[in-house]
Amino acid sequence: MEIDWKNVHRVLVVRLRSIGDTVLSTPSLIAFKRFLPEDQIDILLEDWVAPLLNGFDAVDNVISIPKSAASRARTAWQIWRTDYDVVFNLHGGTTGTFFTFASGAKHRVGFTEYQYNFLYNHLLSSSSDFWKQEITHSAEQQLALLGFVGVPVEDRPKSKLCVTEEMSADMDLLLHAYGVDEERIALIHPAAAFKTKQWAPRNFALLIEHLKSRGLFSILVVAPDEKDIVEEIADSTKTFFHGFRDLTLPEITALASHAELFVGNDSGIAHIAAAVGTPSIVIFGSSNRDHWRPWTNAPNEMVYQKFPCQPCPGYQCREFGDSRCISGVTPTSVFEAIERVLGAADKKSGHEARLFQDVAKN
Q1: Residue 78 exposure: Cα atoms within 13 Å on the Cβ side
Q2: pLDDT of residue 319
Q3: Alpha-carbon distance 62 to 10, whole Å?
Q4: In the chain, which stretches have pLDDT less than 70?
Q5: What pLDDT, on a 0 to 100 scale, did the predictor assign at position 69?
Q6: Do 10 and 135 belong to one domain?
Q7: 3-class SS at 261?
Q8: How far is CA 108 from CA 22, 145, 151, 318, 336, in A?
Q9: In whole angstroms, what is the distance from residue 194 CA to residue 197 CA?
Q10: CA distances in angstroms from 146 to 24, 154, 183, 221, 254, listed in the order given
């Protein structure tokens, strides 16, 4: 059963889970909006991550779901009443499948690997089959579902987040309050979901010292329960830096847009930085680099040590016990990557400035 897009007026994208998952759904939202500019394009997100898409112009409504069963039932009722024509589940978890089926949409799109896939009526075998390549990025996997049913995705849009004028002004005020509004800023994220993905705090201390020598002031962001990491870094360096553990996701997005460079572990914050065009260095340990690399046109590099056991689930190191994939990444290798990325950023900036001058002359 093909989708007659001329008779489609409301589309729902279901993308539950994390920060990175949400950021990497934005290429699909961009592809949808340019394909159906007059249609209603909504996205269903978990409530804690929903603010990340504040002001994002490729989506009409962000529907957030809290954890309570009663609230989720009300959300399902709201979705059913909206009368969506097409629903895409970009993740495939059972909760996402519940909301997809509960929508009552005529067209429900997912992958054949999804549990309870009989609740869908458009099933793609795999993103590799769609793109005709063995390895695909998370963003490509999501775009493949759209392309499978006729949405143009061949140019593979990059991730994007919005920083409103209000958000930017608020961040200017915050940086001024801390006396760093005149500084060149490097955004650092030293935390990670697993120890197998977390570079040592003492290495981040050396990183802060190196960035200082390059004229960059380091600002660290962590979650409220990760303050011990910042304290351990502070104990390992005499170089002054700021650490925030209470910023909202929109505030982190605005801060990333102010930064000249991002350096950190593979995490959702790295994807935020990439989505606002900040040059990035991402330090990889156990996770899948092909799947989670920065999805951006901004200068970026991944720094890692190759091991035959990579990638792995990351909950623990079954091969060595001490996560050598992340501990083996040397500060020198990160410093060298920084020089290359900053050089590429300067070159790109110079090219854009010349292009602007040429346009102005004409």
Answers
A1: 15
A2: 87
A3: 13
A4: 349-362
A5: 86
A6: yes
A7: strand
A8: 20, 11, 15, 39, 47
A9: 5
A10: 14, 10, 43, 34, 30
Which tens digits make up the pLDDT trace of 112-145?
Answer: 999 999 999 999 999 999 999 999 999 999 999 9
Q: Which residues pair with 219 in a beta bridge?
A: 187, 242
9 occurs within a structural domain? yes
Count: domains in the chain: 2
Range of the structural domain that residue 57 is part of = 5-148
pTM of the model: 0.94
Distance from C-alpha of 127 to C-alpha of 121, rounded to nearest angstrom: 17
160 in a structural domain: no
* Of the candidates 343, 213, 337, 188, the residue with the CA atom closest to the CA atom of residue 263: 188
Report the distance separating Cα 152 and Cα 34, nearest Å.
Answer: 9
38-90 pLDDT, tens digit each? 999 999 999 999 999 999 999 999 999 988 888 899 999 999 999 999 999 99
Cβ atoms of residues 342 and 211 within 8 Å: no
Are 142 and 182 found together in one domain? no
CA distance 357 to 362: 9
In a domain, 190, yes or no: yes
E strand spans, the chain: 10-14, 40-46, 61-65, 86-89, 107-111, 122-124, 185-189, 217-221, 242-244, 261-265, 280-283, 300-303
The predicted structure's pLDDT at residue 262: 98
The pLDDT score that the predictor gives to residue 354 is 55
**Contact (CB, 8 A) for 211 and 185:** no
